[in-house]
Every structure is written in C-alpha cells, then in structure tokens.
Design brief:
By secondary structure, the chain is of the alpha/beta class. The protein contains 16 helices and 23 strands. The chain has a 7-stranded mixed beta sheet, with helices on one face.
Length: 540
C-alpha cells in the first residue's frame, strides 16, 4: 500500500467549540461565555421544544440568517443531549455571563460620578481580580476586563475545541450562528486544540504529500475511523504545481467577498482570507490551489465573522509569515484583542496597527492603516481599519465595509496621500440590526426601533460617490457584498434584483462609468493586472 498522500481539494475543515462553529472574535473568553448563555442555549431549547417550527422556518429563504436550527430532519434527540452537555460542562461560563450582565446593570444604576472604589466590594466573586471599574469622560461607568488573565483562567478552555472534517460537494451549509454541527458517518471530529501544529501538518498536505500513517497518528484518528479518513485523501507522491506569481506587473485576484490576493515582486498580500473549497460547480472561483506557496502578509480589516475566518486562517497558518490586525484598547468585551486571540490560536507573528501606522515591506511596497468609520452599530469598536497599499507608483485603497459618515475624513486622506489609483469598497448598505451580532453581549435588550436604527451597514450610493469625489480613483471595484453562494452560511444574505444593496451599487457603478472611471461589482472570480509606469517594472 502506498503511504504518501495529499488531502483532497474538497476536504472541509470546520473549527468547532462545544460543537458550534467558531466565529471570531466570539472565541475570546467573555464573548464566548455570553454567546453560549444568550444565544446557543436559547436556540437549542427552542428547537427541542418545537423542532417542526425550526424545520419550517429554515426552509423559508427570507428567514435565512435567523435563529433557527437548519436541519432538514428532526434531530431533537441529539440537540437535547448537546444542550444538557453544554449546560453541565460549561456551567462556569454560564455563571460568568450572568454575573457580567447583572453587575453591569447594577453598576449603571448606582455609579453616579463619585469614586468607584467602594464598588469593588460589590463585584461578584466570579469577576473579582478580572475587572477594573472605570468612568468615561462623560462619567458613564463600565468594566474593563483584564483579557490576558482570562486566557490563563478556566474561562478559556482548549478541551472544547475541535475540527470537523468532511468532504464538501456543494456551497450550501447550515447557518453558523444558529446551527450546531452534529456528527454522522461522513464526518470525522479531530479533538485537538486549534493551536496544535498538527493541523498545519494536515493542511500542508493539500500541496505536499506526507505519510498516511504519520498523519493519522498525529491526529489520533480512532481505528474505526481510519477508513473514513482514507476517503479524505488521495495517494500520490507528487506535489501540486506552485501558483507563485512571477509577472512584472501588479496582479490582484479576487477570491470572493473581501478576500483579495495582491502580488508583486515576490511579495504576496492577502486581505480578509475566506477561501472556497475546490469541487465541481458551475460557479467558477479561485480556491486554495490558487494561493502562492507562502503568504507574506495577511491583512485583517475588522473582527466580523465574514472578515476574520478561522476556518480559512487555520488552513493557511503554515504558510502565513505575518498577520496584521487592527489595534484596540480592550476597553469593552465586545471588542477583544485580535492579537491576543490569534496568539492563543497558534499564530506566531501578529502585528497590531493603529490608524495611520505604516509597515514598510521594502522600498517598493508599503502598507498603511486607515480610519474605518461605520458598520459597527455606533459601538466603540476600535479593532477596525482600512488599508492603503503603495506599490511602486500605484496606490490601492482597501476600504472594506467603510460607511462614509463624515466625507471630510476622505478629504484629509487625499491631502495626505494624494489621489488613489484603485479603490475597493463594500456597499452592503442594508445591514443587520445591532442585536443580530452583538445582541448576546448586551446586558439588556435595546428597544426595537433603536435596534433597527443602528444597522451594520456600509456605504450607499450617496456616501460612496462622496468617497469618489474626495479620492478621485481611476478604478473602482465594489466588493465585500457576500453575494457568492459559499458565503450564505456565514452571512445569511439572499439578494434579489430589487435589494437595496444591488440597486445602490448599480447606481454607483453606472455613475462612475459615466464619469469615465472604470468600475464594476466583483462577483465570484476576477483577476486584475495593474500596469506600472515605464522604469518601475520588475524584472521577472
């Protein structure tokens, strides 16, 4: 029997904690505790009580992204068992969440501008030593959590972490915020913490063959699951052909949503990685096989579940040299440190950048972090930046989901950096209300009218065209719309022709083209070549 093998290109690896899909930064200790108690448990309790209602609602396309478990058969017995297991094994996290919410409400009612020193006596025992009580400059009280201590405590557990392996042959998957992953005969669960380097060994086998016996030993595959694991691999001694770019110009490949691969002069930069698996489909896309052998810099714009994706990052960790994340103060638990989190997930070189910080890769390539307004429901979230890339004589602005709340910001950027050659801008301008993502973290529910007034939206036509007026880009690409079918399980979006996001971006593209600016809305797959001025081109 041949011993060397590669993993199949359609081997799906889903990161789980307590059998729920891990969406970062919800894995950080405080958000994780609050999501378990305020989201996962209520959803499972609702399902056990009325599985037929969940089945009915999950078939309604207009309800995609709602709090309904997405299984097409009754699995209430398994859900009930998982529910009881979580209530028992995660009791300490449930108690932590309850203490945070109750003390936050108490602090809000009793702190009135006088010294907070006496309030330390009232901190619940479970929180003592983990928080500092503070006022903001308007004398509103809050708790600042000491995150590094929490990662060293029982509130960050490695033994709940696992990866579920299965072969995928279609884009459809159950929605991640509503549906736990249950095992069946086609799925293999690897019970190793995410920081384990054995995942690197497995994922490297997408390109370079390794020993079959060695990998099943490293992953501790049970003897009765070896045949299943064997179906995930193909026996071969040959490596896959390298996808390294050797051209003279700047090449930009669109991998879907906010994921761009920018290559020049042997340098590779990947933004907000979210990569599709490779399987037969009419919807052509770039996949893992289209990535270079190493990635010099991964740029993360912000901590929403469609921009920092552990499922992809874990599979790329072995080839990532540096990962760049926005810096934050850790002042609120809804905004955990991405650097701290990634370090605990096994990423060695994590670079924090604040607004206007610059990274000089070499004399030809520089990265600057830009202010990012909007899309965060008016919360004081600091972990968010756009990126400004200067490559030789080209200026590329990667704006993510920036909402142009204050056009003067872009006037200032133009004054500092000059006009832009290429702009990538998200226009998901009819986003979810505050409660959709941040609701489980809030001590009390917000009134519905207030909740829906604080949507997580990017720029609409008016805001986007104002950015164009300021930056005067030569080319504009609307991206980060979540239109690709393999994003539905994360975003729950189901666009129609008259959806606001489509109408607004259509109007924007039409106006840009009328002005003589090359513009389009990216979808599925796109390759752009930016030609440099004579004298600036690299020698191949």
């Amino acid at each position: 029997m041949k011993n060397h093998c590669r993993i199949r290109p359609n081997l799906q690896l889903e990161p789980l904690s307590n059998q729920w899909y891990v969406s970062l930064p919800m894995l950080a200790p405080i958000p994780h505790a609050m999501v378990i108690s305020s989201s996962y448990i209520p959803i499972m309790e609702s399902y056990v009580e009325a599985p037929e209602e969940h089945l009915s609602l999950s078939q309604d396309l207009s309800m995609v992204g709602g709090p309904f478990i997405n299984y097409d058969i009754d699995r209430s017995k398994e859900i009930s068992q998982l529910l009881e297991h979580i209530k028992s094994s995660q009791k300490h996290l449930i108690e932590l969440s309850s203490a945070i919410k109750s003390f936050a409400l108490k602090l809000n009612s009793c702190a009135n501008g006088f010294s907070l020193e006496s309030e330390y006596n009232n901190i619940p025992d479970i929180l003592k030593g983990y928080v500092e009580l503070v006022y903001d400059m308007s004398n509103r009280p809050s708790m600042r959590f000491i995150e590094p201590l929490l990662y060293k405590s029982k509130y960050y557990s490695l033994n709940t972490q696992s990866v579920c392996c299965s072969l995928v042959n279609e884009d459809k998957r159950p929605f991640v915020l509503s549906t736990p992953r249950l095992l069946d005969d086609s799925r293999l669960q690897i019970n190793l913490p995410f920081k384990s380097q054995y995942y690197d060994d497995l994922c490297r086998m997408r390109e370079i063959p390794d020993s079959f016996s060695n990998i099943i030993e490293k992953l501790n595959v049970p003897s009765d699951k070896i045949n299943l694991f064997e179906s995930f691999i193909e026996f071969t001694n040959s490596s896959r052909e390298s996808a390294d770019y050797k051209g003279k110009e700047i090449r930009i490949r669109y991998f879907g949503h906010a994921c761009l691969l920018i290559e020049y002069g042997g340098i590779s930069i990947l933004t907000d990685p979210f990569i599709s698996y490779d399987y037969p489909t009419e919807n052509q896309r770039f996949t893992f096989s289209d990535l270079p052998s190493s990635i010099d810099y991964v740029l993360i714009t912000h901590g929403h579940l469609d921009h920092i994706v552990l499922e992809t990052l874990l599979q790329l960790r072995y080839k990532i040299k540096n990962i760049v994340v926005p810096k934050n103060s850790g002042s609120i638990y809804a905004d955990p440190s991405l650097k701290l989190l990634l370090h605990h997930l096994g990423f060695s070189s994590v670079i924090e950048v604040d607004e206007l910080d610059e990274i000089s890769i070499n004399q030809d390539v520089q990265i600057a972090a830009m202010p990012f307004l909007g899309e965060h429901h008016d919360l004081n979230i600091k972990a968010k930046v756009a990126y400004f890339l200067t490559i030789q004589d080209k200026k590329i602005y990667i704006a993510a989901d920036s909402s142009n709340l204050d056009p003067f910001l872009y006037d200032h950027i133009r004054d500092l950096y000059g006009r832009i050659d290429v702009l990538f801008l998200g226009m998901e301008c009819d986003g979810a209300p505050l409660s959709w993502f941040y609701g489980p973290l809030m001590p009390e529910k917000l009134d519905r009218d207030k909740d829906y007034s604080r949507q997580g939206s990017g720029s609409d036509f008016k805001k986007a065209i104002a950015i164009v007026d300021s930056l005067e880009p030569s080319e504009i690409y609307v991206y980060a719309m979540g239109m690709e079918p393999w994003f539905t399980y994360v975003l729950g979006l189901n666009y129609e022709k008259n959806s606001k996001q489509i109408l607004e971006s259509d109007q924007f593209i039409k106006e840009c083209n009328r002005r003589g600016i090359q513009s389009e809305r990216l979808f599925m797959k796109k390759e752009l070549i930016l030609e440099l001025s004579e004298g600036k081109k690299q020698v191949a």
